[in-house]
Design brief:
The chain has 88 residues and is of the alpha+beta class. It has 2 helices and 4 strands; from the N terminus they run E-E-H-E-E-H.
């Protein structure tokens, strides 16, 4: 799943509830929602309806688990390499 998430650089447009002229770096909630809807919050306020926001706690959880899975794979590959070198 992590490989389907694309980080982007963007500026908030005039419709955004956040006012900033600074370049933003992150993921687009609308794109993330297609991949992992549980990681996107839907917010309604008096000024905005159907606003999308990335749930950073869920996103962090996903990233930590992805790193752990990769480390497990690395450790397994290291063991296989050691066995191959030993049996050479």
């Amino acid at each position: 799943m992590i490989s389907k998430i694309n980080p982007v650089q963007f500026y908030y447009n005039e419709k955004a509830p956040f006012k900033s002229n600074d370049l933003q770096i992150g993921v687009l909630a609308q794109e993330l929602e297609k991949i992992a809807p549980y990681m996107v919050d839907k917010i309604n306020t008096k000024d905005f309806t159907d606003l999308r926001s990335v749930n950073n706690q869920a996103y962090t959880f996903l990233l930590i688990n992805a790193v752990k899975e990769q480390q497990k794979q690395i450790d397994e590959l290291k063991q296989q390499v050691q066995l191959l070198l030993k049996n050479k």
